[in-house]
């Protein structure tokens, strides 16, 4: 529960309205309020406004290929069962028995026709329908079982196998929510049929979920400093190592989401995939413009608001081994103020050779994972932020974080009017913070709008 | 034939594990890589998921927190020695407790022995007072090379599904 600090005899920290107002003021200056990265009231409102309202990622259909396959998942902090029911339909069911609230799904993954509550034995089909109540006849003669199925997320929809749910019955449909960002998602999920390998990496990190979300909106400025150790030992992408001429594009104003895309001019790079994988792709599913962008793509990353990010890395975990195209999909799950859980799924083109998929997996582990040579340094830096954000002094000096890069005379980032896709697109995209501002503007709108 | 300065095969293996733990605790990673593993080493930390008791195993055959060979371990060790490896600078302080060493199998012709042991890593970062604890069983194959043991194969079976340490920038 949120702590009410207003009763503190030694004075009090500002109420949430003050923080959100100051955040709004900061955004107008191209800055953000540091305090929001560790605050009980902000966190509680995020659970309601951000996570129980927007379309939040649940899982990929390839994780539950067979009828009865299930996985435990979370929307914000709320437990759900992601299950393919006996009719082959994907369901997102709240994991709480209608009788006394106990969890009916006690394993992280498995296959089942029914979920049976261990408390009193109420039993549900994998569709969520209640079909068993012990001694119903002489105990609950008037209980309407049709009314007491497991609660389901009110909105569930998918895009190319990516399943999202919204807990807001009045949410716009997923297609509207993704909006113009679909043009970009198609490059990754329409050109090739992607599948998840195995189980996600899961680990806890002492930082706020917004820090990595904002980073994956397009903080390419941190790479030379934050990831110098990995670049020095010769791993990662050819573009980051400067071995290929490239241009980085930062794309925002595509429905509140954002992307960063390296383009390697006139090269069939396809994120580092080799010809035998590229030939399994489906160019006919893309427009000519989309296909050209895909063809020239080096490292690409982005975030779908609020907390689904990805990085597509053409790279290797060993300078003596070939580059492969590794796709890491990640979710930043809120746990408590200043603390989150990272979920990381490694994805591959479904029709690629098995040996290649194995290499993609190894490179994913070696670069972006709990042990990833790139990832570990991000986290070693991020975990210091919540302590500062929770400082009394942060409020006293109205501490802000700076997102004004690229503004003013003499900056190199510039809008590229000739870019073929939707959104506002900057060349020299590593030298602008417009993508990250998009995240915080959408966050602020969602936290303050009248509902 | 196994007993080199040891009273039993098990004791000889324990000596190897203790020496390894000392090198890793002391962050002598280059020496660990040069002197304690074989060129064809296979090293993996599979992902664990919570499953029903009836499941054959909780460990994934496809998913790993680390899946390494000699070359990728070399990359990791060299990176950790770099002046810009922020996750380990200032370094975490790790103490490995190795116990319950059992000889599972031996193959004198190949000069190899399979052992199992328990591992508890007590990890403190910066001024933390509460440690991150990592608990696991190690299943190792050691091979005799020039009169000494080297690690030829290791599987680290974590007790964790959600790992309670922010980064695995250490060797388990």
Automatic annotation (TrEMBL), chain B:
Gene Ontology terms, MF aspect: dioxygenase activity
Family matches, as InterPro entries: NTF2-like_dom_sf (IPR032710), Rng_hydr_dOase-bsu (IPR000391)
GO biological process: 3-phenylpropionate catabolic process
CDD domains hit by this protein: ring_hydroxylating_dioxygenases_beta
Segments forming a coiled coil: none
Top-level taxon of origin: Archaea
Pfam families attached to this UniProt entry: Ring_hydroxyl_B
Keywords assigned: Dioxygenase, Oxidoreductase
PANTHER family documented for this protein: 3-PHENYLPROPIONATE_CINNAMIC ACID DIOXYGENASE SUBUNIT BETA, BLR3401 PROTEIN
The protein's name: Phenylpropionate dioxygenase
Species this protein is from: Natrarchaeobius chitinivorans
